User: Fold these one by one.
Assistant:
Number 1:
Amino acid sequence: MSISNEILTCIRERRSTRRFTEEQISPAQLDALLDAAIWAPSGGNNQSWLFTAVQNKDKLLRLNGIVIKAFQAWTPDDGYPGKLGIKENSQKEGYNFYFGAPTLIIASNKPRYQNAMADCALAMQNIFLAAQSLGLGSCYINQLFWLRDEPAVRDYLQELGIPKERVICSAAAIGFKGAESPAPARKEGTIQIVR
Ligand SMILES: Cc1cc2nc3c(=O)[nH]c(=O)nc-3n(C[C@H](O)[C@H](O)[C@H](O)COP(=O)(O)O)c2cc1C
């Protein structure tokens, strides 16, 4: 790779952080992340996403407890192997689906909207890159998407301000890095150029 600049370096150096310190990010940092999110592209310029940032430790722990219980009764709706592993892990002592991060940003979108996931995923990557640029760690969190139709999860998300009709798309765990993650090697054969 011969061309390099700040953004390209940020893209290359961003990793999923799975260990965070207890320290909360500043209000200015949170503002910057949420601003990055809402400047993502969206299909037909819908901007129909909702980003709910939860920074209250007790509320996050309560959500974690509800997620653990919901996993007990949950059966994956497809053959994705990671899901069964995570269901199993969720029943182990000390499980925390957002890795104990001090901030969790939950992305939801309007129902029956074809680009709901795509729009939120682009916003998530904006959040991750903005976090990296500010020296913060971040990780994509899928559990709330998987459990999006579990009544107890939806009841509590509603208490946190996410209306039940909205589709839960994804979440971002955010905080100061407690450990660096190694960069996974890139797979071969994933690029082709036709000139
Ligand atoms: C759609 C999607 C879902 C993911 N879900 C999770 C998750 O629930 N928990 C987690 O720890 N990482 C999750 N990840 C992060 C990936 O595991 C990670 O991006 C991948 O291992 C590559 O590592 P890197 O992000 O450090 O480059 C998810 C990533 C994507 C794109």
Number 2:
Amino acid sequence: MASEIVDCTPYREQLLALVAELPEVPRADLYGFLQQAKELSERLPEGLAAALDSFNAEGSEAGYLLLRGLPVVEDELPPTPSSTPAPVDRRRTAMEAMLALAGRRLGLHTGYQELRSGTVYHDVYPSPGAHYLSSETSETLLEFHTEMAYHVLQPNYVMLACSRADHERRAETLVGSVRRALPLLSEEVRTRLFDRKLPCCVDVAFRGGEEDPGAIAEVKPLYGNVNDPYLGYDRELLAPEEPEDKEAVAALSQALDDVTESVKLTPGDLLIIDNFRTTHARTPFTPRWDGQDRWLHRVYIRTDRNGQLSGGERAGDVIAFTPRR
Ligand SMILES: O=C(O)CCC(=O)C(=O)O
Ligand SMILES: [Fe+2]
């Protein structure tokens, strides 16, 4: 199984050369950009390519793969964004290019129509007065969530690439892995939660303009292979009703807390989260609103694992919401 951290500093020159072959303005023709990235991803340095392929095939115990020491080109970085989506003519950053190259080695970049105006590349930056469920929060804990666990076309991976850390380097991205949590669960809890559909609310973007449509989806906390299950866990949105379900979810929740690993993303880091085997969160930090605040780039990747693709899709497609039921 893949080791969790790959030091990419030895590949710097090779990676910068690949980045330079990508079009300079990704959003001008995103399909073209991601197609070019696919071809270039065949030429990734061997060690890096092998780590990505192995993670894609088998996952890891910790549920993530962290690429460290990727080239961030400081002088080409504009101020941290304060609005969304990014202007179509914004020049690519090195870390956005890395999301294209590493992402295409894994699968297909996917945009979600209802989310961030249906864009494929998201900027993750602090925003004053953000909703408590939003990745734009900063001074409050962003609680454990599996990205779009309630969406039939849930992404297989969430990729987060860091161009800027918070000033105090306090923010931690937390990952709770089901492979680590499962041994802590009693047989009773496992059986209760396996293949059991529980009511689940959805994120604000998917509520169709209604303030609180309630639990419009159903999510299975554990499913797939009984000995190596997938996880669907969202601390804020999952809404078990029956006492036995509430108790079992509380036990799962505790187990995930017990095995949580933390990553402090620093510039040049690219974190690939296995979104079918983990839940993730982010601890508070203090923004300064000076143009140098924490700045991540995010993409979602679908692969053919668990039927997330049916054939004919392209990297860069933007898809509509169907709740899991
Ligand atoms: O800011 C982070 O480290 C993670 C935020 C998050 O959950 C996301 O962007 O999906
Ligand atoms: Fe997230």
Number 3:
Amino acid sequence: MNKRVLVIGLDCAEPSLVFDKWADQLPHLSGLRKEGIWGRLESTIPPITIPAWASMMTGKLPGTLGIYGFRNRKDYSYDGLSFATSLMLREKPVWDYLKDKKSIVIGFPPSYPPKPINGELITCFLTPGVDSNFTYPEDLKGEILGRFGEYLFDVRNFRTNDKMWLRDEIFKLGKQRMEVAKYMMETRDWDFFFVVEMGVDRLHHGFWKFFDKEHRKYEPGNPFEDTGIEYYKMIDSYIGELIDVAGDDTMIMVVSDHGAKRMEGGIVINRFLMDEGYLRLKSHPEGIYKLKDAEIDWENTTAWAEGGYYSRVFINVKGREPNGRVLEEDYEKVRNELIEKIEGIPDHNGNPMNTRAYRPEDIYPEVKGIPPDLIVIFGDLYWRAVGSLGFESIYTFENDTGPDDANHAQHGIFILSPHEKNGERKGLHITDVAGTLFDVYGIEPEGKFMGKSVIREVENEQE
Ligand SMILES: [Zn+2]
């Protein structure tokens, strides 16, 4: 078995597009599949960039990581949430085990601020900007800026109606990321190479309604009808170049941290909590407003929530939160009642919507840090959670953080190539990426490791 591995991470790459709808137009991705093991890759709950990539590369679930989203509670105060950084990631990713091998890591979230690595690292899309120290070693930064000009971490304002601008920015981001990866592959010795490309995610959020005929806002013949496939084709062509540079002795993996699907609308979760008497405000600002800009009557508030692709619901517990009111002995009763009510919310037409509200301890083998009391996935991810208030009802079809037509989907993509026992595989989980890499490199993982080796499973099966 060869021990050099190239992992190409496409944030949000969607299996129904890569394996089905556009497969004929993506020769390199389809070629890798033909000669390899592939399938839909089940993401973490929640299926969000952070913690999903971290789970993929550590083999640990979000509860073990103590990272439940982009932003996490740092204590039980009402001060809101703090953004995830590399410093919060205490479990070892694959490259931290590869002490005698050289690793190159580009764009892994969360990797800012950069941590030392046996090799080189460029930080992720959560990097404040090119003025910050975004590489390890530090002097790699000068080389990258000298060669590529301004380094693009992300398209910052991707929730915009200026679609011409957005399209150009996403293409620029993807092109540069792949060029940087190619340059690093060509100019360095490496045993493990991992690059994460964010453009696919931004493309989905910005352009989904233009190419998905089932989207409620789809308009036939719109000027961005082909933007989606054009972007995937560009990435596919770069994948072809990276495979060539990597050479025949390299195992190639192409993976995504989650998929994407059309967004039907949003549930104004805090409005629901208010209507049901769980959340009380002392004053209501005008128009649409954020919960943090309202004066909350904490003494009379039982629960409040954060919005996003999923919702986090927090219970105001006496002795835990500063002005907690739910007694410890009533906690489970209140939580069960919330689960029942939230899961029972019908859609705007009165139909059941298949919402799930999870207790963290039910979905993770251990729960570290400060988890939400409930993790809510609305309408099988066809609906997002809207944290703002001031809407007419609990249903909204405009996103409170700007135009966004896609939500995340629970499954991303997995391709491992080449492998002689090629073909589609079911039941793949995001932690299996680490499981497979650890197997390839002969690593014994530490702690609550969840991943299994896909290669070992395939090879152990009877013909
Ligand atoms: Zn993502």
